[in-house]
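Here we describe the complex-level prediction in full. Unlike the single-chain runs in Section 2.1, the two entities below were treated as one system.
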Amino acid sequence: MRVRGTVAYEGTAFHGWAAQPGLPTVQGVLEDALATVTGEAVSLTVAGRTDTGVHARAQVVSFDVADAGTDLARLRRSLDRLAGPDVAVCSLEEAEPDFSARFSAKSRRYLYRYLTAAAADPFRRRFAWHVRALDLDAMAAAVPPIVGEHDFAAFCKAGAHGGTVRRVAEATVAPGPDGEVRFWVEAASFGHQMVRSLAGALAAVGHGRRHPEWVRDLLDSTDRAGIGNVAPPHGLTLWDVRY
Amino acid sequence: MRVRGTVAYEGTAFHGWAAQPGLPTVQGVLEDALATVTGEAVSLTVAGRTDTGVHARAQVVSFDVADAGTDLARLRRSLDRLAGPDVAVCSLEEAEPDFSARFSAKSRRYLYRYLTAAAADPFRRRFAWHVRALDLDAMAAAVPPIVGEHDFAAFCKAGAHGGTVRRVAEATVAPGPDGEVRFWVEAASFGHQMVRSLAGALAAVGHGRRHPEWVRDLLDSTDRAGIGNVAPPHGLTLWDVRY
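The structure predicted for the assembly as a whole is:
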């Protein structure tokens, strides 16, 4: 039976999604839990392979279980309990035999959060980057050029799979509660560290160190040498996945 | 110079507000930071002495500094840095010489959060109690009798200062985002563990183990023997203080 699951996690304590021997990873925790419950070596397919320290609100996974009569509500409870407090197994449902969390996905949406209040909010500090005041108008002016299909080589870490040409479906900057600033971006797929590179560039614009047009110029340059700081991972959350 | 400050903290790692030798407390952290920066032994007065594990969003403190010319913006930054990631010093301002964070306060408002989704949300698990589905209508029906002046002996831990008669100004149960349920309660002051005792009783009603009228009966009994589980501290946040 092919199973589709939704999981949420705080990435702080994990070396990212992808299993690595001897390191705590989200995939490792979930596959260990599946092995414990089902007695099988189950391999997970995932919609978005998040990096070290990056969170997920509605990550999607797919996997197979040998027993077509598996009680998925019960399996969900068992996995949720075993996965520990940083990983939640929110839902499990039977999927079409050809469903793939990775290849069936139409787009991934990420949220990057900045906190701009004088003091870092202890309730949000794990999930947002605490920075000085940001000029939202300048950031919003910098965003439109990244929408559409472009070579994002200037914003992707070298060695990324699938090249650096990507189509960004939507990108917006919006105010959140209590001095929070939110950068939303959606695309079929992203290059390695692309969202955090964009979030770092937008912070440079928001702090007045760069003009809004600089983001377009950087994009056109397709040269990563011009980019400044990549935004830290703890501000980034994989928000949801569309199918 | 009398100073009024607003601080926020995640209570998870602290043995409550009040300083205790050899234990991590919010007061201890802040008084140590003040001693480091000012070179003086500064004693803090606080609006709400939160218990072990309880959080605060806009806790209010008052204290004196010897130098009337102290740069409070700079002092705030220094304290915020020294206090560490779980405590934020949000603002400092000069107050009237007779201002007391404790005695000038007109009321304290607390928020108790329950999470009712099947899986505990990793982003909110530190700040909310994960429980089974709650009947909001039943909980809302149980709340009105606690508003007004009553002897809350049934809901206060023995040994509380100032007796057990309190006047609750407002109490409501409301839905929050993604299966969150919020119990808001405001009063001039609260007895020891009063909010968590009320939150525990409301959960018993929300789970159908008790009728809504049971809360009124318990209140009328002024007998703590009848109460069930006190709700855990991590769901409770001191939200704000009115002056």
